[in-house]
UniProtKB/TrEMBL annotation:
Family annotation (Pfam families): 2OG-FeII_Oxy (PF03171)
Single GO molecular function: oxidoreductase activity
UniProt cross-references to Gene3D superfamilies, sorted A to Z: B-lactam Antibiotic, Isopenicillin N Synthase, Chain (2.60.120.330)
Keywords: Iron, Metal-binding, Oxidoreductase
PANTHER family the record matches: 2-OXOGLUTARATE (2OG) AND FE(II)-DEPENDENT OXYGENASE SUPERFAMILY PROTEIN, OXIDOREDUCTASE, 2OG-FE II OXYGENASE FAMILY PROTEIN
Name recorded for this polypeptide: Isopenicillin N synthase-like Fe(2+) 2OG dioxygenase domain-containing protein
Family designation: Belongs to the iron/ascorbate-dependent oxidoreductase family.
Signal peptide start and end residues: none
Organism: Suillus plorans
Source lineage: Eukaryota, Fungi, Dikarya, Basidiomycota, Agaricomycotina
Matches recorded under InterPro entries: IPNS-like_FE2OG_OXY, IPNS-like_sf
């Protein structure tokens, strides 16, 4: 797929320009403005980063597919319900989409054109996806008011998986972390803030590599909801390319549902805005709503992979990385951005005005 075809859905930000040219250059400034504008308008963007290795992504997806293809009794060994699944595996039908019982969120759905609405989550059924959380944060060199759970990362027990687990998770996780932190810098510049403003605010964030897995044999019916309509709690979320389509996002400025399309190859990642950057910008950037569903494109890919990869598990993996601000960072809307947000909100189809109170990031997470 050409870059021009990609641009019909989401703006494509070129990290290579940012990383190879002086910050003051016109080209870099234009690309930074483009990144900030994309997050304001869509709550999401595609990023091209030549540092990202296709081989690393494939190795990661293969490993996670193999992991979730294990018998459920083996997976349950990696559950840590006593610490609220903060590390290790969360099995299917555990997580529920919060939006199903959240009035402001339901109002947003009701205000969308019926043709642009997400699949119905009103039954409040748990998502059939599984998840694995792998911590990738740097512990702060100070005593935090919000001590993270000290549970160590979980390494699966099966020898063929455990021997390459940590190296594969760390390698792909760092690729996405490097990319999203560069986008944080570009966004700051595009918003008229110091380059390091957002990145430094997340220096000791409790970042998580959190791949999700959906069994397309069990849950492969058309219009199956794999992850119900929701936003993310953290600052910025970044995804690698999945082998199966099905991710839809909603553009803030139009209320239109956009199916996210990655090219079949190429060094692209998807970045989405979360609640922490929404708070920081006083709502100028809004956390992006999204869902993952089984649709016609998913089913076509399933049939194609049965022929081309008959030896591989039929599991949809999303290589999600949640980039957080530091728990002790004080979230307070930046005044000049709040003023821009107020003007911008007046022109919106759905006015989502929210009061952004001063609070620590740790409080925001607890709330």
């Amino acid at each position: 797929m050409s870059e021009s075809a990609l641009s019909e859905t989401l703006p494509v930000i070129d990290l290579d320009v940012f990383l190879s040219q002086p910050t003051q250059s016109i080209r870099v400034q234009e690309e930074c403005n483009k990144a900030a504008d994309a997050l304001i308008t869509y709550g999401a963007l595609l990023v091209h980063d030549s540092r990202v290795s296709e081989e690393d992504n494939d190795a990661f997806l293969d490993l996670i597919e193999d992991y979730f293809a294990q018998p459920v009794e083996d997976l349950k060994k990696d559950e840590r319900p006593e610490i609220h699944y903060q590390v290790g595996v969360t099995l299917e039908n555990t997580e529920k989409p919060k939006c199903a019982v959240d009035e402001p969120c339901l109002d947003i759905i009701a205000n969308l054109d019926p043709a642009e609405r997400p699949l119905d989550i009103s039954g409040h059924h748990p998502d059939p996806k599984c998840r694995f959380f792998w911590k990738m944060g740097t512990p702060p060199p100070y005593e935090t008011e919000y001590p993270a759970l000290n549970a160590p990362n979980v390494v699966p027990q099966a020898p063929r998986i455990s021997e390459k687990w940590e190296s594969t998770m760390e390698k792909w996780g760092h690729s996405m972390k490097n990319a999203v932190e560069s986008i944080a810098e570009m966004t700051a510049i595009g918003l008229g803030l110091p380059r390091e403003f957002i990145k430094d605010a997340g220096k000791y964030g409790p970042h998580l590599l959190g791949p999700t897995a959906s069994d397309l044999v069990k849950y492969g019916g058309n219009d199956t909801i794999l992850a119900g309509f929701h936003t993310d709690l953290n600052c910025l979320t970044i995804h690698g390319r999945s082998r199966y389509p099905g991710l839809n996002i909603w553009a803030r400025n139009t209320g239109k549902r956009i199916p996210v399309r990655f090219p079949p190859s190429g060094r692209y990642l998807l970045v989405q805005a979360g609640k922490q950057i929404e708070h920081l910008t006083g709502g100028l950037i809004k956390a992006g709503f999204h869902e993952v569903v089984v649709n016609e494109a998913t089913l076509q890919t399933v049939e194609r992979r049965k022929e081309t990869h008959s030896d591989r598990p039929n599991i949809r993996i999303s290589s999600t990385f949640f980039w957080h601000l530091s728990s002790d960072y004080e979230l307070v809307p930046i005044h000049k951005l709040s003023e821009r947000a107020n003007a911008f909100n007046l022109s919106q189809i759905v006015d989502q005005r929210t009061v952004y109170e001063r609070m620590k990031v740790g409080q925001q997470v607890q709330k």
